[in-house]
Amino acid sequence: MNGLIREREALLGLHGRLMQRFGDIDGNDFVIDPWQRTAVDGGFGGDGRTAILEDSVVIERGAVLFSHIAGTALPPAATLHRPHLAGRPYEVVGVSVVLHPRNPFAPTAHMNVRCFAVNAEDQLYRWVGGGMDLTPCYLFDDDAVAFHRAARAAAPAEYPTWKQQCDQYFWLKHRQEARGVGGIFFDDYVGVDALDTALAVGRGFGDAVGNIVMAHKDDPYEASHRDWQLIRRGRYAEFNLVWDRGTTFGLQSNGRIESILASMPPQASWRYAHEPNAGSHEARTLAVLKTPRAWL
Amino acid sequence: MNGLIREREALLGLHGRLMQRFGDIDGNDFVIDPWQRTAVDGGFGGDGRTAILEDSVVIERGAVLFSHIAGTALPPAATLHRPHLAGRPYEVVGVSVVLHPRNPFAPTAHMNVRCFAVNAEDQLYRWVGGGMDLTPCYLFDDDAVAFHRAARAAAPAEYPTWKQQCDQYFWLKHRQEARGVGGIFFDDYVGVDALDTALAVGRGFGDAVGNIVMAHKDDPYEASHRDWQLIRRGRYAEFNLVWDRGTTFGLQSNGRIESILASMPPQASWRYAHEPNAGSHEARTLAVLKTPRAWL
Hints:
Two copies of one chain form a homodimer.
Chain A: H1 5-26, E1 31-37, E2 44-54, E3 59-71, E4 90-101, E5 108-119, E6 124-135, H2 141-154, H3 159-169, E7 171-172, E8 177-178, E9 182-189, H4 194-216, H5 223-243, H6 245-252, H7 257-260, E10 267-269, H8 281-290
Antiparallel strand pairs in A: 1-2, 2-3, 3-4, 4-5, 5-6, 6-9, 7-8
């Protein structure tokens, strides 16, 4: 655990910055649950800081997570593009954020950046993965555009490819609809500026989502808007538990359950064959989710 | 589609009986959504009757499903014990029930029976699978005992084995806890009385669960009981989406989504590292779920 000293310091800084930013918006401090875990039986060990807002004012449920772990055998799921590194000793440090705002007009937002170092026989491999994506229950085009602008600003050259990868990854195949309006998603970035790019993604996310949540946190809403929000959060739960590689891998491999499931919505609901009324804001949102769009 | 005429008629009768029973308890009729599906591209076709109670009085969400389908290639997941039949033409007719009562002291209940017929080169194979299991948020020992008595009465000789299989199947590995207090679960029953056993399971479930829900539907409760119910329903959602073979297979293989997800709770919630107070009814329930018990 000493290949990623610079990355650890930088990502701890990002963790603090995002916690501060979203805590300021909510008006309440995140509760920090620091943890340590000793590697046993070929598993992984490390430490982390899980920061949570639960049943809060603006952010009904929010998690800003830092973790730094090392293990003796890289899981195959962690390295789709470098299968020859599966099973090698590895180290990974990352920050992830999920915010479920209370107001139905404020979108759910997610960001993750993680820096890998893997020791193979011949050399030390390093790469960065991550992304940011936005999941509105009620689509506002301006928000989607602002979010994508922030994503492109963080990685201008890679944006077109990473935007497409995001649309592909956050696809609920069983519903034939996207989780949200996308953003960027990347698995395996090895540029010399990899850490700077990860930090730019994290900061860009914080600024863009901060502005969007501030803009909607006091929008007036009714019970029917809340109902639709809970149905859409049911979809979010479906994506995380059925399709998300990180979540399903974590659940099936003795990960830290409370951190893995910190991404789940505070409340969700399911209805039989629910369809929004034709022409409604709900129907327009759903139509866009069924056909991912070029926002820029 | 003509190998299971007797089974179809018997299970349509069971479907009607259960719908009537639970509709009487609720005071409202189930809404029936009949469907037909034509086989395309090596998929499956058939028909079904999806009966739903949504946001209702006693049963907050309930589904009583009948389906009868045929396909050209039996999915491997459908026949763990007969791998040589995977890929053969098959027919299956079944009934399943999931009830999520509104009162937190009334348990969630699930039952499924299905009759298979598979054409292999040498002969026609038939078997029956299914089970019944109970998921209380608040454990009442008497209810668990009554439910297990009903399960044993439906299949006295097989009960000891099927009870164990149920505890094994409905295990949330990532939580190290059972979904509920079990019941029976069987994959591959070929007795000469297979259809009668399936019907006995269905009827026994209807009677036992009817009595249990009637006993608790008017229990007084407070907001804190509802909170715990929603957290436990989150676990139910986790089981269905992460571990249930029928659900995950259906979602990943172009099944009929609305029928597959009719088992989901009407509402569910997630909290970070939630633990019930020591000595509470909630804590006692959770302790029993962590160590499945012999109820009879």
